[in-house]
Amino acid sequence: MIKRIICQRLLLVTALLGSLHATDLFAEEVAALDSSQEKQNDEKQPDEIELRRPQGKPLKYELPPIDPNKVAPPTAEVRRESLPVPDRWRIMEGLGIKQNNWDPYNQNVLKADKPFEPFKKWGEDWFLNLGAISDSLIEARQLPTAVGAQSSGGAGAIDIFGQGRQSTLNQNVIFSAAIIKGDTTFKPPDYEFRLVAALNANRTQVEEVRAINIDPRRGKIRNDSHMAIQELFFDKHLRNVSDNYDFDSLRVGIQPFISDFRGFVFQDNALGVRLFGTRDNNRWQYNAAWFRRIEKDTNSGLNDITQALRRDDTLMFNVFRQDFPVPGHTLQLSLMHNINREGDQTYYNNNGFLERPAVMGDTRGHDYRVTYLGASGDGHFGRWNLSTSFYVAIGRDNYHPLAQQGTQIEAGFAAVELSRDFSWMRIRATAIAATGDKDPFDDRETGFDAIMENPQIAGADTSFWIRQAVPLIGGGNVVLSGRNGLLASLRSSKEQGQSNFVNPGLTLLGFGADFDITPQLRVIGNISKLDFVDTSSLEVLRNQGRIDTDIGIDISAALQYRPYMTQNIVLNASMAALLPGKGFKQLYNADDGKTQYSLLLNLLMSF
């Protein structure tokens, strides 16, 4: 019986395979077995049990209920049907996933995740990217402040140094809009039009008249506002140069640019033309650009396009090499040439103070040309993180108001930050050196200065020295260090003044640490020892005897809270103090022991 069943199944298999010859053979064998079986059945006894496999009901496949609202399954006779979608980016909508316009982290047409429907007349891959940032700041500080020259705020105020408590409220609202053509998942956009506008309102209060306005009748409180265009450019993708989407692109208009990883020499939103691209699967990157600086609003620091452009041009070229000399580290080489032709200008800021030429020496104007050669690195060697920058500045100043002659510019700068992560904390060590000028009257300027610095090192915004503008009282209308600046450059301001390479230079040695207490809360601490390199220029400007090089110790601490563990809402609170050294006390008559400080509360909300 079993042999008969096996033969029947083999017969079925061979029939399906189309082997007629094998079918005949198996058919004869099955017929013989049937005949033998019938003979055995005739001969078997009535009490014998027939062994036969039970035969059940054949299996039937039941189709699931048909939903008339869904597409019917395809059949062999009917052509396949499908639901149309506007484009491949909206496939998720067919599955019932809805969009929330206020959610920037999931698919959102306002964040360039899907093509923007009104732009479909131009093509299928036009996107819109909208953004908004609210930047709110409350700041209190103690700074060296001069008593008003024409008049003072109270009887008996005849000293040089007055009361230095100040406070500032500052609100920026920034709107951005970008129209982009091309899917940017694996390649740069084909076209991009971008606009960034900023609205600013600020209020500053001081204790001395003429500290915030040259007219003492304006009092001790200043309210101001400004509207700025920070970015307005057109970006064109010129070509792809490899299958990995290495490319060349051209960008024209008001655009941001940073010269190195930490913003030591140039970081600005300037009018320019920039050619940039990549090679070797993005291992090489390059920038070739020309920028002309835009005049800044005095009290907000934002662009002021209502004024004529500055006659200050920068030509630059830099190249990046990723994974050099080891994987995880990027090397950058930079060449920048700054041409300033503002020597015949007289420019006063919005508060009535003279910015160009700076009030120092014989206050004559001057032009200069400076070339910066730089090498920078950023990345890690194993578990050690390393960030470095080295610059040499060489050039020609046609006339310096202290030297009162044409001079050669020869200056240098170096910065190193070494850090290491230990689970939830990072420990940092920082060393910075900027050369100073030894003789203000010779034909060489050896104090390093930048074009437009915005350094992100040694605590940056939390540091007193970097955050605050410390005026050089009694030495002309210049600042010892600019707001959001590191260098002791003795210029009128970094936003509106000219570079000055006759300055005391600076050294900084510091340590810091970041502690991620929770995913939402970070604690930051920094301590830095600050010194001048050479105080000859300060002694000349102040007409003062020997001034010590010891500036003091900068101590700062900050809390950063991100309630949603993203950058959409960030609350920063910091406090910083400068414990004055001997040189600082000599400059500001600080023997009374007053500690210079700043307190800051900042709320950032981004969409």
Describe this structure in words.
The N and C termini lie far apart (79 Å). Helix 1 (2-17) packs antiparallel against helix 2 (20-43). The chain has 6 helices and 23 strands. It is elongated, with a radius of gyration of 37 Å. By secondary structure, the protein is mostly beta strands. The chain is 10% helix and 42% strand.
How large is the radius of gyration? 37 Å
Query: What is the terminal-to-terminal distance?
Result: 79 Å
How many helices? 6
Arithmetic mean pLDDT: 87
Shape: elongated
Q: What percent strand?
A: 35-45%
Largest sheet, if any? 18 strands, antiparallel, barrel
Q: What is the string of SSEs from the N terminus onward? A: HHHEEEEEEEEEEEEEEEEHEEEEHEEHE
Q: Uncertain spans, ≥5 residues at pLDDT below 50?
A: 10-23, 42-46
If you consult CATH, what is the topology of the domain at 235-606? Maltoporin, Chain A
Structural class, please?
A: mainly beta
**CATH hierarchy: architecture of the domain at 235-606:** Beta Barrel
